[in-house]
Amino acid sequence: MIHLFEVLGQLFLLSCEFAGFLISKKPEFREWMAQFYYIGVQSLSITNITSLFTGMVLALQAAFALSSFGAELFIGDLVSLSIVRELGPVLTALLVGGRVGAGITAELGSMKITQQLDAMRAMATSPVYKLIVPRMMACVICLPILTIIANFLGILGGLLLASLELNINGYFYLSRVIHALDLNDVASGITKSVFFGFFIGIIACNNGMRVSGGADGVGRATTQTVVTSSIVILISDFFLTKIFHILTH
């Protein structure tokens, strides 16, 4: 419990410092663009492939489940709601947390054990401003964009399987998707991804900044980032879903 409260305190203080620099100082656009490319563009392949085949698998499983009720025509409803509300934001966050979170922790941890962070402080430069603010903002901004693309490809995957394997008319499938989704569904999924991006960024940066013990410490911190961010994403998803349900009903 003491360790848990210590970590929560570290995350809170780092979040306050991040917010202070974000408000008080101008952004360094070159570093921001580099992080947008690393976190956003280079994550497109893994998130897109995962979401496409997730939509296809979901449509196939839905066909098996709904066929006993003669309701195969409602596959578009099930796929679109499942992808947009839950699977799109959560799977994207888990994949980005595993890829990007581990990378951020390893990079900052290597800088910590080679005393590059101490050198920055000696030159009156804040590592939070130079290193953490661009990475966290890239996580917060890029994750909703990746989620929107993942939602689209997941629904597209369901469309491909429904039309090619189940002989469901594509126009009918899309009409069911449009009928099933409303603005609250889309907004809740995108808003969740903003919180997920913040959690991934703050956990990865905090673990990287507090690495100790040399190269083996970097490995431990990287593993801890992946595990912790995954758990936080899944737990926060439950509470965010409850909050959005209360606000919209």
Q: What is the fold's blueprint, element by element?
A:
Layout: H1 2-24, H2 29-39, H3 44-67, H4 75-113, H5 116-122, H6 127-164, H7 170-180, H8 183-209, H9 215-248
Helix pairs in contact: 1-6, 2-6, 3-4, 3-6, 4-6, 4-7, 4-8, 4-9, 6-7, 6-8, 8-9
Percent helix? over 70%
Counted up, domains total 1
Strand content: under 5%
Instruction: Compute the CA-based radius of gyration.
Output: 21 Å
Shape: elongated
How many strands appear in the DSSP assignment?
Answer: 0
Number of helices: 9
Structural class by secondary-structure content: mainly alpha
Unreliable spans are none
Q: Main β-sheet, in a few words?
A: none
Order of helices and strands: HHHHHHHHH
Summarize model confidence as the mean pLDDT.
88
What is the distance, rounded to the nearest whole angstrom, between the alpha carbons of the first and last residues?
Answer: 36 Å
How does this structure look, described?
This protein has 249 residues and is an all-alpha fold. The mean pLDDT is 88. It contains 9 helices and no strands. It has one domain. It has helices at residues 2-24, 29-39, 44-67, 75-113, 116-122, 127-164, 170-180, 183-209, 215-248. α6 (127-164) packs across α8 and α8 packs antiparallel against α9.
